[in-house]
Amino acid sequence: AAASEPVGASDIARQLGLPASTVYRALITLEESEYSDRFQSSARYELGAMPRLLNRALLRRFALQRESAPLLRLLAEESGETASVSVRLGWYSLRIAVAYGSHDFYHRDRLGEVTPLHASLPSRVILGALGDSALMQYWAFAEKYFKPTSAERKLTHSSAQSLRRDGVVIEAIAASSEKAAVGAPLRNGNGEVIGALVLHGPIVKSGATSAPASFLSARKSLEASIAAAPQRFASPFAHLNPNDIRIALPPSPSFD
Predict the structure, then answer these.
(1) pTM for the whole structure
(2) 92-99 and 114-116 strand pairing
(3) DSSP character for 63?
(4) pLDDT in tens, 217-252
(5) 85 burial via Cβ count (<10 Å: 0-12, 13-18, 19+)
(6) Exposed, middle or buried: residue 37 (CB in 10 Å: 0-12, 13-18, 19+)?
(7) Strand 36-38's sheet: what is its strand order?
(8) How far is 163 from 131, CA to CA, in rounded Å?
(9) Which letter does DSSP use for residue 4 in this model?
């Protein structure tokens, strides 16, 4: 799954320290169950259809994905920018729904993307809304596994302050020094944050303290649905200790 290009049995055997014959038999089994495919009928392998189906099945476990889809499409059509919803998964955020805007030519904001809670705008929105006690627990976890930089800590602190002051997080984007993206937490009826709604493109002026009315209306609608059926929108992983959830991330992720 982490390979940048299709790999052969000998390459996998060398990486795992296993006999090539053992790896080849395993690859045949994986191919028969559609977990792997031969690349263009060659002796090299890539992921098959089953992992993609499992990914989709995971995202469908979150009722918020289906509920948010129409609202995200409206936001993307109105603004021309990408709109997304991410949910908390332990000390990570998982992007479960995306609607791409017409202004986006290259979509960095991928469906299913996972980042630590300090490492992207949706993540920082969730983390900033968790409160001081959870923030301390998170930094202990992050220091152990991610080694966040001082700049990342400063940006996360700034996001938390923005949430307390304005109820939204507005962050400048690399493509424009004058425009910013906007994010806001999604809470259940008890006030607990379960996710984040984000418009990723240059949607407001840098230094602004409020989000577009359509964005705030979409958040209000989603939170009303969540409050009306709390069990339906509860995370299937909420019962797990966040410290026990470890997700393998790309070797050199970009947290810009």
Answers:
(1) 0.80
(2) antiparallel
(3) H
(4) 999 999 999 999 999 999 999 899 999 999 888 654
(5) buried
(6) middle
(7) 7-8, 44-47, 36-38
(8) 11
(9) S
Would you state the structure tokens that stand for residue 203, as one six-digit string? 């949607």
The one-character DSSP state at 160 is H
- What integer pLDDT is reported at residue 134 of this predicted model? 92
Give Cβ neighbours of residue 126 (< 8 Å, ≥ 6 apart). 86, 88, 93, 117, 185, 193, 195, 196
Burial class (CB in 10 A: 0-12, 13-18, 19+), 166: middle
The three-state secondary structure class of 45 is strand
Mean pLDDT of the chain, nearest integer = 89
Is residue 52 within 8 Å of residue 206, measured between CB atoms?
Answer: no
Alpha helices in 47-119 (DSSP H): 49-60, 63-79
Amino acid letter, residue 215: F
Q: What is the pLDDT of residues 46-57, one digit of tens each?
A: 888 888 788 888
Between strands 44-47 and 36-38, the pairing is antiparallel
CB of 9 closer than 8 Å to CB of 27: yes
